[in-house]
Design brief:
Number of helices: 8
Largest sheet: 9 strands, mixed
Helix content: 10-25%
Strand order of the largest sheet: 2-1-17-16-14-3-12-13-15
Number of domains: 2
Strand content: 25-35%
Structural class: alpha/beta
CATH superfamily of the largest domain: QueA-like
Mean pLDDT: 96
Distance between the termini: 21 Å
């Protein structure tokens, strides 16, 4: 399939650069298994989901991963911490007038915390901080909100670019699992009262989620690597849900990638698994776990648009997206939501 097969026109004014006042106030476009779609409010999932269905949520937490600093010569730099390996070693993206070489020293904040570049790992820089990284991020970091917001992180993002159920011990993502941003505690409680179960998996979202696909033939695209974990408890709940004929509802593409990666690693059936995943889901992929997907509206020609096209099909998705544009749905991380049923 060609990259151009996943293009559509999106007016700039439909990009949601700020969240709604209430998390669960978003609209919801339900794309059904037969390709028909229906407009809803997000809270209508209370009527759509059945007792015994299972929500699979990603409990990662977003780091204040963006650091602004300078080189020894005074030139401005920006460091985006992608992955932390121990207290002081990390893989990072670095924006500078020219790429720093091994041995280069960067300085963060008024206290000039030293960051030394020690080498490269693929497209990332390997760096060593002179102080514990999480302390530096807490003191000087900014939330790495998506580039298409075209603004700096603000106070509202501190709360709203995190899920209400994030696990503080899993502070490792550089982007939010944005489908989960629609859930508030009241909605989660009402779903529980109805008998809709939930479980958590973890996938630490990397900045690669925002990288464009640069190959004309999408099968030549190589996905970025992200760490994920599906626990024994989560795998058991998923297996029990499938066995009794209820729906497994992945909340977001990250929960989808985590569960499908675990299933692939376990021979096609869900099982406990921890590791790095580079799973690339595009049309033709046979889903092992996910029956339904709650997700936001994605960028043209993105791997996320390809993933949702695999669960439904490309024509169904693009038809629904054209309707969403015409109906002025809000797009991307702070935008409205879709509920996509696995195609017949």
């Amino acid at each position: 399939m060609q990259l151009s097969d996943f293009n559509f026109d999106l007016p700039d004014e439909l990009i949601a650069r700020y969240p709604l006042e209430t998390r669960s106030a978003s609209r919801l476009l339900h794309l059904k298994a037969d390709g028909q779609y229906q407009d809803h409010h997000f809270t209508d999932i209370l009527d759509i989901f059945e007792p015994g269905d299972l929500l699979v949520l990603n409990d990662t937490k977003v780091m204040k991963a963006r650091l602004k600093g300078k080189r020894a010569t005074g030139g401005a730099v920006e460091v985006l911490v992608e992955r932390i390996f121990d207290q002081t070693i990390a893989h990072c993206h670095i924006k500078a007038s020219n790429a720093p070489k091994a041995g280069a020293e960067l300085f963060i904040g008024p206290d000039e915390v030293k960051v030394t570049v020690t080498g490269r790992h693929e497209n990332l820089f390997v760096v060593e901080f002179s102080q514990p990284i999480l302390n530096v991020l807490d003191q000087y970091g900014q939330l790495p909100i998506p580039p298409y917001f075209n603004r700096e992180a603000e106070a509202i993002d501190t709360e709203r670019y995190q899920t209400v159920f994030n696990d503080p011990t899993k502070l490792a993502s550089v982007a939010a699992p944005t489908a989960s941003l629609h859930f508030d505690q009241d909605l989660l409680q009402k779903l529980e009262q109805k008998g809709v179960q939930k479980t958590f998996v973890t996938l630490h979202v990397g900045a690669g989620t925002f990288l464009p696909v640069r190959t004309t033939d999408i099968e030549n695209h190589i996905m970025h690597s992200e760490w994920c974990e599906v626990s024994e408890q989560a795998a058991q709940l998923i297996a029990e849900t499938k066995a009794r004929g209820n729906k497994v509802i992945a909340v977001g593409t990250t929960a989808t990638r985590a569960t499908e990666s675990a299933a692939q690693a376990c021979g096609g059936k869900i099982g406990a698994w921890t590791g790095d995943t580079q799973i690339f889901i595009y049309p033709g992929y046979q889903f092992c776990v996910v029956d339904r997907l709650i997700t936001n509206f994605h960028l043209p020609e993105s791997t996320l648009l390809m993933l949702v096209s695999a669960l439904s099909n490309r024509d169904n998705i693009l038809n629904a997206y054209h309707h969403a544009v015409a109906s002025k749905y809000r797009f991307f991380s702070y935008g409205d939501a879709m509920l996509i049923d696995k195609a017949l």
